[in-house]
User: Which sequence fits this backbone?
């Protein structure tokens, strides 16, 4: 599956070499909590950074983006909490966008939809080891995404929703994590 995603990203990236805009973004990410039999797995202090390349023709465009998302995890019960490690996600996405303003306008609002392959790192911490849970494996997988934003000159405010709900396993138990990250970011872009 990973080879297929790499090949598809390469095929999409080839025509984007003549891209008119590249950009860098930083932002905040927020993920849903997952309830697991009276225990809640929660993520907070999320950060995001990445880069994108976009090719535009009139009111439509295609964006290829790579991001790094990080958030601190906590396991909570009614009476205690434990460090669940740091959630690290690396989505590579392709988004088709519709721009409401004609090309070249200073204010450019847009909406879009697409797909992403989210590479995930496992959760690990000394608290998880002490509780006998150990490493929590988090599945890497494909998901769809929704996108909206506005560009004002070289600056961009962007929001992306990833419908990412991976399987996870620890200590022989499998659970679907209801992460669904939302990334709100600001960035700058340059025309090539």
Assistant:
């Amino acid at each position: 599956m990973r080879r297929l995603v790499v090949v598809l990203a390469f095929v999409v990236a080839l025509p984007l070499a003549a891209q008119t805009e590249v950009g860098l973004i930083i932002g905040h990410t927020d993920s849903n909590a997952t309830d697991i039999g009276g225990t809640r797995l929660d993520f907070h202090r999320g950060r995001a950074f990445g880069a994108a390349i976009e090719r535009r023709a009139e009111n439509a465009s295609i964006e290829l983006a790579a991001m790094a998302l990080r958030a601190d995890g906590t396991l909570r019960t009614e009476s205690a909490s434990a460090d669940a490690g740091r959630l690290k996600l690396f989505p590579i996405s392709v988004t088709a966008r519709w721009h409401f303003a004609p090309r070249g306008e200073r204010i450019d609002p847009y909406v879009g939809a697409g797909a992403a392959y989210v590479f995930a790192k496992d959760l690990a911490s000394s608290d998880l080891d002490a509780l006998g849970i150990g490493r929590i494996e988090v599945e890497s997988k494909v998901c769809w995404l929704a996108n909206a934003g506005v560009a004002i000159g070289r600056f961009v405010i962007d929001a992306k929703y990833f419908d990412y709900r991976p399987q996870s396993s620890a200590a022989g138990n499998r659970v679907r994590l209801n992460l669904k990250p939302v990334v709100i970011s600001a960035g700058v872009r340059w025309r090539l």
